[in-house]
């Protein structure tokens, strides 16, 4: 059944207090819950509605009296008590089987320990409850368990009592002073150890910080702890927001559906986003850990203190919190060019994953109007496009204006469950601005297109930029209204320097101005422009749109060499490369020969050898658009042709730039002890990019370079990059290097994930090879990280093999979606998205994809998660 945003009604009852007692046992956990409720005076409804799933209801008492089976109605996971009194005390006892919970929602067991995941609707797998985010209560939680097996007992808030119970059992009593929705509830129990640190907060209060992991992992917690402390400091500085608890805990778990979870005071993390030391984690891992630790910490204010009224408002907390973690990561790098590299990385994710989503069958607005299963809406649109929407406020209002809006938001809504509109109103009101039209960013799906054209009048010394916007149809939204789009622009004079801008009818000054496009078409006139400039449009990617402008090749080369906006400097190179890649792909399809003109190579050589540029920037500038990004530009996707074209271009560039690549390799070594700082990481990135290009040549010298690095590396970044170079070519040491890597890291699950993932995405790995890897003793479908490392890496990260002409990739996909669905619907539904773009392929592939989708759709007992995804894929356009 589809749930609609327009059907929102406030709850009939508020929950004021919740007390819970858990008797933890893997095969039979008893949960006793006592809650006090009060009828919502604002409503007319007297029906008390509770949700429960996959649990056994032992008993239920209302105001002290046991309720018989006819005192309530229980159907499809909804328990209704009609005509309940105004004040209610409910006592509910439920019985759970955490050891059989493979969905990893609610209470489950991972490697012998207990964990919970309650967002979005997991709490209802623990007890019957008004499990919706606008129902907020205070919680007191008693945990009881065997002391030897579960020496550590954690829940939200403060530990107020602990002790022995005799008979080998013990207890811990926790109290969370802040009222919260049930999705922020958490408990952890088991054999864990922690690194801890006390810090002084800005106000002078002291807080205890802990990072909990399994024994043997204490040598991998320092970076997470450092990241947490940096996050706390950053939120104090940038937004004036302080940690509101005396104790803040992070716990790592190896079985987890997503990245991490912001449970109040007890964040639970996928091990992937906690554990790091130089031996097992790459520079990218270090960066991701910092970002996710920040993200979950920042939720304490944006998500927990102010939460969502309903799940349609998910981006209220997620878009805002992603924006905050992006800004945090950028500030941690500190330099302008470092910030630009971070910005480019974020935009790459948006284009690689969100643009295709916005153009496919699952397209939805940042604030969706309907869904079947909310878990399917933890998407790149809600998160990453949502963050872009928040970023546009800052672009329009300035940093100070944005901060004013944030302050007003907390002043108005602290302790409340609110809507995206409330955030927009705070931004508007704090700045005296009308942001009515800006609402369309929340209500309209699809990636807007902005087409720019220019007219220069040398005699009048004017330069006019005309911007035209449109937005393609998306499911359920045929036509779109114009968006309010901030378009940051600069003009480069013939010397490559920015012109001072005089925008007609405006007092905006400087070398970059933000044009506000609000109509379908608008013209902006700049005065005092004597000579024809080159426009630098959508600087720093000021809006999540596709910007089209008919640049000549030489103009792009000019921007690559001179634009003061590092984002657009990168962008110019990408435009040029994309142009070549599309032409090469067309040539492959036409059966003609491929050839590259030397101009692209020369422009890239200038970038590669420009020592004034940060190595990190040079690395991203030399990275060609991905196969997925190329595919999105084509009317009919031909994965094999794209793959051949991109390989050809990489090979040609490697030949043309070989000497410079070898220099870059030599000049960007990082001797001494490993450090994940941005400068060292940037050097390693450029060095390893050089290694990867040289690897394209697949000759003895290339093999030797990779082999030597693989054997000598003292950190995972270099070891893994070298292994990848070997794995993607025909080096004689390939098999031995893979085998040795496995041996060396057999006891490090996160590294074994990398080992699977590398092979799954290697260009020579076909479906048969993936099936063989699935037989490896270390493979398990039950562990999401492992399933993702092999199956997702193949289906999403190896397009030319996955889209094999015989359809064998799709058969494999269908089998795995069905097998996963029986274990873990959330993970299965993610994999189900791999065929989102099936309609864009040539008929032979398209028909095979459709059959695979139909096969999944027809599978018996399919979860609503997977059913929604394949159903929408198959639905008429
Ligand atoms: N709120 C979490 C975060 O963004 C993710 C929630 C996970 N949701 C889920 N259905 N597993 O950090
Ligand atoms: Zn989040």
From TrEMBL:
Domain Peptidase M1 membrane alanine aminopeptidase: 224-441
EC number: 3.4.11.2
Biological-process GO terms, alphabetical: proteolysis
InterPro entries hit by this protein: Aminopeptidase_N-like_N (IPR045357), Aminopeptidase_N-like_N_sf (IPR042097), PepN_Ig-like_sf (IPR038438), Peptidase_M1 (IPR001930), Peptidase_M1_dom (IPR014782), Peptidase_M1_pepN (IPR012779), Peptidase_M1_pepN_C (IPR024601), Peptidase_M1_pepN_C_sf (IPR037144)
Keyword tags: Aminopeptidase, Hydrolase, Metal-binding, Metalloprotease, Protease, Zinc
One Pfam family here: DUF3458
Annotated SUPFAM superfamilies: Leukotriene A4 hydrolase N-terminal domain, Metalloproteases ('zincins'), catalytic domain
Catalysed transformations (reactions): Release of an N-terminal amino acid, Xaa-|-Yaa- from a peptide, amide or arylamide. Xaa is preferably Ala, but may be most amino acids including Pro (slow action). When a terminal hydrophobic residue is followed by a prolyl residue, the two may be released as an intact Xaa-Pro dipeptide
Domain Aminopeptidase N-like N-terminal: from-to ranges: 86-184
Cofactor(s) recorded in Swiss-Prot or TrEMBL: Zn(2+)
Domain Peptidase M1 alanyl aminopeptidase Ig-like fold intervals: 446-550
Record keyword Transferase present: no
Domain Peptidase M1 alanyl aminopeptidase C-terminal: 553-875
Signal sequence, start to end: none
Keyword Metal-binding attached: yes
Function, in words: Aminopeptidase N is involved in the degradation of intracellular peptides generated by protein breakdown during normal growth as well as in response to nutrient starvation.
UniProt record similarity statement: Belongs to the peptidase M1 family.
Entry protein name: Aminopeptidase N
Organism field: Oxalicibacterium flavum
